[in-house]
Task: structure prediction
Amino acid sequence: MEPALNLCRPALTALMSLAVPCLASLGARAAQQDEIQVYADEANKPGELTLQMHVNATPEGVKTPGFKGEYLTTQGIRVSPEFAYGVTKDIELGLYFPEVAVDRDGNWLFSGTKLRVKYLPLQPDEEKGGYFAGGNLELSDLDRHLDQSRYQAELRLISGYRAPTWLIAFDPVFDWKLSDAVASGTPDFNYGIKATHRIAKGIDLGGEYYSDLGQIDRIRPWNKQDNRIYAIIDIDQKPLNINFGVGYGLTSASDRWTVKAIFDVPFSYK
Result:
């Protein structure tokens, strides 16, 4: 463990030197900012309760609001605590509460609450690896400054393959707006892709790609889609467990720079 940490300490120092100033002065926006994550085969064991923190910041982002009163991501920070509980080997429940956003002027916004249930019937062997597949259903109650629809539903399909030294995951995501003013039976469509390779014990490097294409029956042209690519590092060195990434927006509809981190809080109950 110690040699692996020594090997990657210069890279981690460089990444954190970039992240700290970014996280110190940042705001919030609705699209993919509370949970910038590709779901893979991770799931709590039956009876296991854990807490993760999602911290996302945007040193340079979109400056034009999508609707009146929208909180913009640029120069803001968003923090989302996530409690997860393993019900069975295949089923996990999650709760995001409270989600907090802070804009560049220091204004605080309690952005909402989310409930989810993950079902992962196909899981890889813990040592040999293999295919995984399942889904995640999420219901959201969001602040009106983050989205025109207060209530939303999300269906995320989870698929991929894990090998002893590499991982690839693909998540198609369908979002429905449920509030009366903007409710629609036609979902928005976005997806995430993740690929990593192990460079040392418990340390993986790779990339993630996120694309928000718009309503599924009216896919937006490329330059109006939110497309972002992230360089990421996954560290699994107990008790340190973190996913850290720096993202770059590929179109004018995307935030130009985003910094994200997902880390386990040293708390668990089983």
The chain has one helix and twelve strands. The two ends are 25 Å apart (CA to CA). The longest strand covers residues 108-122.
